Amino acid sequence: MTDRWYREYMRVQYKDTDQMGIVHHGNYVNWFEIGRTEWMRHFGISYKKMESMGLLLPVLNLDIQYQKSARFDDCIAIYTKIDQFSPVRLTFAYEARKISNENLESDNNHTLIMNPGEIEKPEGELLAKGTTTHMWVNQEWKPIRIHKAAPEVYERLAKNRT
């Protein structure tokens, strides 16, 4: 078991802001999806591979608490970890945090170099936090028990849950 968070970096794009110059609230849902997708890839369970195995993981519930606003060009860290886990359902916890430019490196073209990875405690100014709850289903959208349908996926999840 691990209490470690997976960290993914991004920079706020202009297209994600509203007329007030702040990130539109709906974009946090996309950020959480990026965090979840990259968490799974990091731990060897890519969505592409899961779907080729006939596994789907639709969202049953989404909960977000907004704390502060992000703005265009802010550096953001998305933290993701498993919050709850069973053979049928999976809940991820997320935190989107603003981090300073000094925490990131850039190349000669000023392109953000992303060094994602595991971390014990989220860093930066909390912007939003939340959870998504998912259910394992097959291609026919029938619920499945992941430990029976794909024991190798279950083992990876069990190894990296909180």
Automatic annotation (TrEMBL):
Belongs to the 4-hydroxybenzoyl-CoA thioesterase family. Residues 20-99 form the Thioesterase domain. It comes from the Bacteria. Transmembrane segments: none annotated. Keywords: Hydrolase. GO terms for molecular function: fatty acyl-CoA hydrolase activity. This is Acyl-CoA thioester hydrolase. InterPro entries: 4-hydroxybenzoyl-CoA_TE, HB-CoA_thioesterase_AS, HotDog_dom_sf, Thioestr_dom, YbgC/YbaW. PROSITE patterns: 4HBCOA_THIOESTERASE.
